[in-house]
Amino acid sequence: MKVILKKKGFETSVEEVDAFEKNKGNKDYLEYRTMGWCQGAALLLAETLALGVLSFPNIASQIGIAPTIVATIGLAYLAWVTEYILIDFKVNHPAVMSFADAGQVVGGPIFKWVLFVGIMVNTVFIAASYVNSGGTAFVEMSHNARCSVLLGFCMALLGFVFTIPRKFQHTSYASFVSCGSIVTACLITIIACGVDRDQWKDASGSVTYKAAANPGLIGVINSFTNILFAYGGHAAIFSFCSEMKNPNDFKKSLGVVQLVSTLFYITVGIGVYALVGENKVKSPALSIPRYKVEIAAYAIAMVSIIVAGVLPALVGIKQLWLEFFREKPMLTSNNWKAQAIWTALAFVTWMLAFVLAQLIPFFSSLLSIISSITNMWFTYGLSGVIWLWDNKRGSHRSPASNAMMLKRGLQGVREAVSGKASHGIQGSQRSQRSHLIQLRQMSKAIEKPRKVTISSLNKLKKQHMPITVLTCYDYPTAKNIEHTHTTQDGINIALVGDSLAFTALGYTSTSQLTLDEMIHHCKAVSRGASTPLIIADIPFGYVGLSDEAAVGAAIRLVREGGVDGVKIEGGAKEARVIAKVVDAGVPVIAHAGLQPQRATQTSGFRVQGKTAGSALSIVEDCKAVQEAGAFAVLLEAVPPQLGDYITERLKVPTIGIGAGGGTDGQVLVQNDMVGAFDAFRPRFVRVFGDVGGATGEAIESYAQSVRARDFPSAEESYTIEESKWNEIREHIEKKERQQE
């Protein structure tokens, strides 16, 4: 293509030539343009297919089978059109070798540097994500959590080694293996789901799934955005095309990728969903089968983690390389100096990624923001901008009519805006809408979650991230709490509270609970949950009896019950005993405000801190227990303003229960929040489920089925052939007659 330049009343034309062509004939020239369309397809497929597929069964469970198929095909076409636009732009502007170059053509230097910074930031953060994810996956496989930082460093080194080759041709070979690994892992998952299909059946003996479902506006946005991200590989297209023998051949690669990925997404998504049903689907999909199969699938998929992390890193480093050495012999030089500089750039990129992954405490949230801003716009929005500019210049090279291309291009911009808007609506759920965050979820399912510590709770306070606390009295509930850490941040503290006297043992007062009974329940909880911090109440009578009695009870709860610390009701008067327990090596949460063990002394279960004197007393209690060494303070039944005031002035986290939403964390009694205990319900309780009602209905249904002789059915019984039974019966009757 010729670019028309105007200057001082005359025109001239300049033929656009890519930077590699300009250097041809130089000494030590390295030919980059060596890839065919098959190698281009492998690169793009590894970039898009590797992780996007893992969310599709969950998408099907959210919106149903038919909408998933229609949306996937429709958005695949949109992705094909927007990618086609970029390829056409590259073919007609050979000098464009990156999005930064496209920005220079379309919007001048300012737009160029905006896109340049966007690509570089995206590169470093994606690499950091893969360092973090791959490192934690290696931790689980090596069973050596103590070396998590070292293994993360090993992941960075592995990424660095794979990035040393400068040509995408070399990476394309690993891309074939990457695609094979994720396909194999998904096939293992589908086969395992089919083999174990009986376990997915519900009470009626069937697997339920829906042709269509309505999860609400947010659910629809979430599902559609996940599909959009699954086709997000646009940021690399200019780089891939620049190393093709014939850039126009990349259209063949694109067609193959869109066809294969779409069929694979639908097959895996619908197949897994149809096999396990809507109530058993997990995301990422490899987490659905039993544990050993799950680990095997993840181990095989590890290849995709490495390659899918290397590709965006190469795109960013190549863009940097172009800016440094464009129109210089070093750009295509094959001498040792060029290789040394390239290796240094690769090393710095991965080390920076390693530092980001390990040292930034809010890395996950920051990654969500970065991916929202960059990935969606590079994938869909900018294609519309580029098409509009190219058509304004008089080009007519789209795969469809100009009207259709304009519609699709503008739709790409709208989808990008919708993506950003949905990220704002969803808040913390933004991380679930990117294939990058799907990777983090996948690695979290592989790894053994890190144990919650006092240090990690303090970090949450500093970051203004809410701390979640829930009571727990038995092994099944503990397993449920532990499970929350496989898909999200989970419950931070499992509290074996003396409220079990009411909810689990049927006592009329917490003062009736004995230390032995508390230890019994603590043992069950500690066997079921290993990730949350497990805290137990010291029962009534020990703290007030003597310092030695309180310390002895705390040590027994830790040693015999397996808990991580204890909770002590009291304030300034109990500061001494709290200090004694802490000195004995047992972490303590103090309990201020309403103190149930002393309810009779405070005129029952009433709100505290409603007068100036009462409020001041609670503030002084909190300061005293903090000085005594308590690592957190639980505030119960105080006005929200007082809860906020204390939270602002304490260095340690505050946990509220009926203390407003401004405390550092919240706690509820598990039986209350699931609707399993209705003897009395405090004002601060919100019921998040009706387990009690569902359990009652199930018991009534069971009794009716037994009386009607409807249970057990033939399917629920162990049967033998009638002829075999007749033989057994004759044998028994014969023996009985002999005994007579």
UniProtKB/TrEMBL annotation:
Organism of provenance = Wallemia ichthyophaga (strain EXF-994 / CBS 113033)
A GO molecular-function annotation: methyltransferase activity
What is the name attached to this protein's record?
3-methyl-2-oxobutanoate hydroxymethyltransferase
The UniProt keyword set, sorted, is: Membrane, Methyltransferase, Pantothenate biosynthesis, Transferase, Transmembrane, Transmembrane helix
- Which cellular components does GO assign to this protein? membrane; mitochondrion
Coiled-coil residues are: none
Catalysed reactions, as listed in the record: (6R)-5,10-methylene-5,6,7,8-tetrahydrofolate + 3-methyl-2-oxobutanoate + H2O = 2-dehydropantoate + (6S)-5,6,7,8-tetrahydrofolate
Q: What is its main location?
A: membrane
Q: Which InterPro entries match?
A: AA_transpt_TM, Pantoate_hydroxy_MeTrfase, Pyrv/PenolPyrv_kinase-like_dom, Pyrv_kinase-like_dom_sf
**Biological function:** Catalyzes the reversible reaction in which hydroxymethyl group from 5,10-methylenetetrahydrofolate is transferred onto alpha-ketoisovalerate to form ketopantoate.
- Single Gene Ontology BP annotation: pantothenate biosynthetic process
Q: Which family does it belong to?
A: Belongs to the PanB family.
Is Phosphoprotein found in the keyword set?
no
